[in-house]
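Working notes for the structural subgroup meeting. M.R. asked for a predicted model of this chain before we commit to crystallization trials. I am recording the input and output together here so anyone reviewing the notebook later can reproduce the run.

Input as submitted:
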Amino acid sequence: MPNYKLLSLTLAISVLFWSCDSEEDNSYTVPDTYSFENVSYDGQVQRLQMLLEMKSYLGSANTPGTVLDAGRLKAMYANDAAAANWALEYDASKQLKSKTFEQEQARFETLMEAIAQHSQSTVPGEEGVAGVVVSLDGAKQYLLNEKGVEFAQLIEKGLMGACFYYQALTVYFGDDRMNVDNETITPGEGTDMEHHWDEAFGYYGVPTNFPLNKDNIAFWGVYSDRRDPILSCNQQMMDAFIKGRAGISNDDLTARDEAIAEIRQTWETITGATAISYLNTAIGSFDDMAIRAHALSEAIAFTYAIQFSPEKRMSNAEVAAVLEDIAGSSDFMEMDLYNTTPERLNAAKTKLAEALGLMESKDSF
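Returned structure, recorded in token form:
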């Protein structure tokens, strides 16, 4: 008769050794910083720098008498170097326009044409009249349209959403960019999957050893850092980006997919919390039109950005409802910030906070 005790013992030992071997095969080191071999996201760095140049040019119109050239703005958007008059050199193949969500590209060019028209105003801005509006203490001044909207913020922060946020969370983390070759290594870039992950990281706008190093953080990196005291989001974002890249490099696609979900949710929380922060500023300075308009224009743009993630916790209709609370319309060209009310702004804040799990902290941002 067979010795069942011996067979059971042998089977148990076999399972034990198999389990140990399996763990060893699937174990790998996850670094503390974004320090991997063959990393390249130069295209993202160039686009961030392009938007920094555009931001500077747009901001020049806050000085009365400075007229913007719509043709130059659109050339900057499409990287027509001859007409853009760049301070730096950029690869001809890199541009902001082609990376913007396609259905939104015309919207930004319309905004550029409109702000150029506003900048021709020779009188101070007021309800019904485009022009520069000065804060009550005289320290700040912004070019507003006739309805009190600062188009410079809709362009800059809007592109942070419809270009950078969209590219990272929807395009590079999407199936078309993640379900690709992960074996063939291109020197300096890694595998196709690794490279796509690195490009998503590039749009976050931080150094590879962030948050220990905060030098030269840009755009989303700046707003992540501003929200960090309450959300502790800096390390969450970096841990997830590092986890996902390490997972890809070690064929651990479960870790990759977990990291994608973590980044999408944390980045969306940063976005909504930033919109709430600007709503709080506007509510607190409601009687100062320059401060109110500037803050609300930013709140509008960050709320608008929420649309561009495939795992968003707010539907597009819910985003539109928040924009309508803030400005009476979800259409940038129809928005009116002269005639909004604190009650409407508080309603917008509550909708954002409820959707994103921020009710306990909504008054603290």
